[in-house]
Amino acid sequence: MLRDQLKDALKESMKQKEDVAVSTLRLILAALKDRDIADRSKGNQDGISDDAILSLLQSMIKQRRESIDVYEKAGRQELADKEREEIDVIETFLPKQLSEEEMTKAVKGAITKVKASSLKEMGQVMGELKATYAGQMDFGKASAMVKEMLG
Question: Is residue 149 within 8 Å of 111, Cβ to Cβ?
Fold first, then answer.
């Protein structure tokens, strides 16, 4: 289970005195705990699923990429570098990311599977992609591909 891998990695990083990994893993586990608490109100006492954890990790990477852009525009390279190091730590827990070519193939397959023919079915296509490829692709890019193919 991904949750256990994160906890084990934190322990190992603490032993190895890897400061960036320790702080990043603590941030991940804190966000995970927040999500678990929010999910309890919906009746889920076990915590969020691995797919939801992958989604959380993807959003954390997206936030850091946005921060990198802001820091570089402000001339704060040391902060941008720290964000990159955090992305490297987070990415170790994600499955292999699909290449551009594989992503295009996956989007076409999802469109065919849900028999989408217009932008009205975009939600169904994105739902299919998220169910099948959680943590393996940037859904922002996938969304743009779906719009282009259905538009």
Answer: yes
Task: Give the amino acid at 33.
Answer: K
Token code pair at residue 27: 């941030």
Q: How far apart are CA 32 and CA 28, in angstroms?
A: 6
Give the whole-angstrom CA distance, residue 122 versus residue 142: 11
Tell me: domain 2-91, CATH 2.60.40.10, correct? no
Task: Report how far residue 70's alpha carbon sits from residue 52's, in angstroms, rounded to the nearest whole number.
Answer: 27
Could you tell me which residues come within 8 angstroms of residue 84 by beta carbon, excluding any fewer than 6 positions away? 64, 68
> 2.120.10.30, 1.25.60.10, 2.40.37.10, 1.10.10.410: which CATH number matches 100-150?
1.10.10.410
76-131 pLDDT, tens digit each? 999 999 999 999 999 999 888 888 899 999 999 999 999 988 888 899 999 999 88
pTM for the model: 0.74
